[in-house]
Amino acid sequence: xxxxxxLSMAQKEWExxxxxxxxxxxxxxxxxxxxxxxxxTEIDDMTNIPKNLREKxxxxxxxxxxxxxxxxxSQIDGTIKYLFEIEGGLVIExxxxxxxxxxxxxxxxxxxxxxxxxxxxxxxxxxxxxLTAGEMLSQIYEMQKDSGERISNVVLMGSGEPLDxxxxxxxxxxxxxxxxxxxxxxxHITLSTCALVEKIYNLLEEDLQITLAVSLHAPNDxxxxxxxxxxxxxxxxxxxxxCKEYSxxxxxRITFEYALIKGINDSDSCAQELxxxxxxxxxxxxxxxxxxxxxxxxxxxxxxxxxxxxxxIEKKGIEVTVRRKLGSDIDAACGQLxxxxxxxxxx
Length: 347
Ligand code: SAH
Hints:
Layout: E1 4-5, H1 11-20, H2 27-36, H3 51-60, E2 61-62, E3 67-73, E4 80-85, E5 91-99, E6 102-106, E7 110-112, E8 127-130, H4 133-147, E9 153-156, H5 166-177, E10 189-193, H6 197-205, E11 211-215, H7 221-227, H8 236-250, E12 254-260, H9 268-278, E13 283-289, H10 303-315, E14 319-322, H11 336-344
Parallel strand pairs: 1-2, 6-9, 9-10, 10-11, 11-12, 12-13, 13-14
Antiparallel strand pairs: 3-4, 4-5, 5-6, 7-8
Helix pairs in contact: 1-2, 4-5, 6-8, 9-10
Bound molecules: S-adenosyl-L-homocysteine.
């Protein structure tokens, strides 16, 4: 029997379950409260739930959250990198970043990833499994509990391709947004995708207010295909068309992520080509000097190159920022902590 994944259930769904069990539906709010406000990890800690209902919950349900196995704190800016174990013994990474406007959590949506981007460490062994909505929430809850601080922004930029785990990610967004739980405004949630075009159109129909970040990393198909296998499936023209429709419909500005890799995508002509393709779009370009991944041969662009690239885009009237690097003393590049842990612990 598949047990109820308790952390992934909406309050309305609890009401249905309780009705079926012949229990009063007001218990739904109490259960939801224990899980999403008080962050209990044991059913027996739900002290206002009668013992017989707790027994039923234990028999038919389970609280499947994440468990902290390692934590690295940056001495420079207080960024914390967490390694969490999930059901099945796999591990995932999450990061807590401190900005002047509040704390941002970067969470994973899958263990591993199957998109195969050549510069990324998360994808080296493919996808191990999708995370549930509860496991995504639990990363935030555990970071809040551990740090004692509220998280006000969430970016789905850890390991995994969120749109490749569409149903669970959508469920996560609605649960995180729920005022009876974390109450995180949708505008405070950023979903980053390598651009699965059909899924962007699906997302458009959901009528959400989240920020969409699209990993472009190249100004044309040729370069994009050389570093991102997904670019062979969807052309840049298709990607940009979907993005345009998304921003037209939601009136939300799209963020284009662009990892600058020395000699691959960082020339003046790349910047010009990129700017010309984005000029009529409600967007913002986020430049990220690529993090060196041991297993890959890519080198980050020099500081001067990054600035020049940014200037060219800016001159064409497109808003651009260079991502400030947080936690540089603990950063073993995205996904690398997880990999080294798995190797050393033979997971
Ligand atoms: N799969 C999603 C989200 C996860 S990755 C996506 O592709 O957007 C989050 C961001 O980090 C993406 O823009 C991704 O391309 C980028 N990234 C991955 N590896 C990187 C590296 N080594 N250096 C810089 N950015 C990297």
